[in-house]
Specification:
Number of domains: 2
Distance between the termini: 58 Å
Order of helices and strands: HEHHHEEEEEHEEHHHHHHHH
Keywords: Signal
Mean pLDDT: 73
Helix content: 40-55%
InterPro entries: MetalloPept_cat_dom_sf (IPR024079)
Number of helices: 13
Shape: globular
Organism: Meripilus lineatus
Strand content: 5-15%
Strand order of the largest sheet: 1-2-6-3
Largest sheet: 4 strands, mixed
Number of strands: 8
GO molecular function: metallopeptidase activity
Protein name: Lysine-specific metallo-endopeptidase domain-containing protein
Length: 406
């Protein structure tokens, strides 16, 4: 019996836990005698934690691919952390999210402002270590009111708050432009934060890069690995369908080399992409250097071997116009429901109320106002087969297929 409580056994158990990995979990301040509201809150928090764990798994996959030099994963990573973050510290925080539990209060917390969630910090007395308390969640987190979060927003918030509690990440920016760690009660705040303007999480690199209040901090701070919101953003980006896959890119490159115009047309319709502008100028020369197939030779001789491919139908200029416009995506903010302009206020997940002398103080940062949702729907994928006179219109790069909305 002693073995099961010995330091050796506990060490082995910890190693197994880290190596095998367990779901991001949540521990509540109470599980019995819950009110009807607390039972509903618990159900939402359970689901949010399950969704957050799925995002953490995608985050791990994206980070590993970033470390391997994958261009697509690099775009997602740099959109979230910029180019100055320490990858080793990012790695350690993701590991904590993979293996530890968030401690949370199951009741609805009234912050008295528009704060969505918070992890309070306290110290017994000056000079003693700061200790993280249980995460607290507002009615807005639970989906109440006009600005209530959706499932994606709740999952991102759980990740955000978990990094506060597990790795002491912060939200506020000091006078040097760097992130203030959660337990730092002395650094003066500049007024900027590492939040994004969308509490329901950005879904694409383009949306993140258009959020200038976030990118101004991301591109200046030297320690974005300490920014809680960056992990929520990275988890969201990596979790979007096809975010880390490159299958269509490989199919496109192969079809381009083999001159398979039907496959290229299919990929163009499926992804609303367009061909390189010099593709059709190079095609005649490529055709001259490529020997005809046996089927084509037999057809030329009047033989019966093989059947040459039928020419693609010509839908005329109207069809060409519809294809060339498929790949266009409205610029962020071009329509109603776009990103909040710089300077607009949005709800915060956690912040610290500044004390009278300007120093940061553990607590919650009220930020009033409401963030708008953003997102331009991808083209439906409907379209025509590639007509012969549409060649001149297919002019832009295919890169939009695999660098997500870059």
């Amino acid at each position: 019996m002693y073995f099961f409580s010995s330091p050796v056994f506990l060490l082995v158990l910890a190693i197994i836990r880290v190596t095998v990995g367990v779901p991001l979990g949540i521990d509540y301040d109470k599980t019995e005698g819950l009110t009807a509201e607390e039972l509903e809150n618990k159900g939402r928090l359970d689901q949010a934690t399950t969704d957050a764990h799925a995002q953490v798994q995608k985050m791990r996959e994206g980070f590993n691919k970033y470390k391997e030099g994958d261009e697509k994963a690099t775009a997602l990573y740099e959109a979230s952390f910029g180019k100055n973050a320490d990858p080793d510290k990012v790695d350690k925080t993701i590991t904590a999210l993979e293996t530890e539990n968030l401690r949370a209060k199951v009741g609805t917390h009234d912050f008295g402002d528009s704060t969505i969630a918070s992890v309070p910090w306290s110290s017994e007395k000056k000079g003693k270590p700061w200790i993280a308390g249980d995460a607290q969640f507002s009615a807005q987190f639970h989906g109440h009111g006009p600005d209530g979060l959706d499932n994606a927003g709740r999952a991102g918030t759980v990740i955000h708050e978990a990094t506060h509690q597990m790795k002491k990440t912060g939200d506020d920016v000091n006078l040097s432009g760097n992130i203030i760690k959660a337990y730092d009660g002395t650094s003066k705040q500049s007024g900027a934060t590492g939040y994004t303007s969308n509490p329901n999480m950005h879904k694409t690199v383009a949306e993140v890069n258009a959020d200038t209040s976030f990118t101004d901090v991301r591109d200046t701070a030297k320690n974005m690995h300490d920014n809680a919101e960056s992990y929520a953003v990275f988890g969201s980006l990596c979790s979007q369908p096809g975010a880390l896959r490159r299958r269509d890119v490989d199919l496109y490159n192969r079809a381009l080399m083999e001159g398979d115009h039907e496959q290229l047309a299919h990929l163009a319709r499926r992804n609303s992409c367009q061909l390189p502008k010099d593709y059709f100028t190079k095609k005649p020369a490529a055709n001259k250097s490529t020997p005809p197939s046996k089927g084509a030779q037999a057809a030329a001789k009047g033989g019966s071997q093989g059947t040459p491919k039928k020419p693609l139908p010509d839908h005329g200029a109207q069809g060409a116009k519809s294809i060339s416009q498929k790949g266009k995506t409205p610029a962020p903010g071009a329509a109603k429901g776009g990103l909040i302009k710089p300077g607009s206020k949005s709800p915060a997940r956690l912040a610290t109320k500044p004390s009278s002398n300007g120093a940061s103080k553990p607590g919650s940062h009220p930020v009033s106002g409401a963030a708008s949702r953003i997102g331009t729907k991808p083209a439906s994928g409907k379209g025509h087969s590639l007509p012969s006179n549409a060649e001149a219109n297919l002019t832009t790069s295919f890169s939009s297929l695999w660098v997500q909305a870059s």
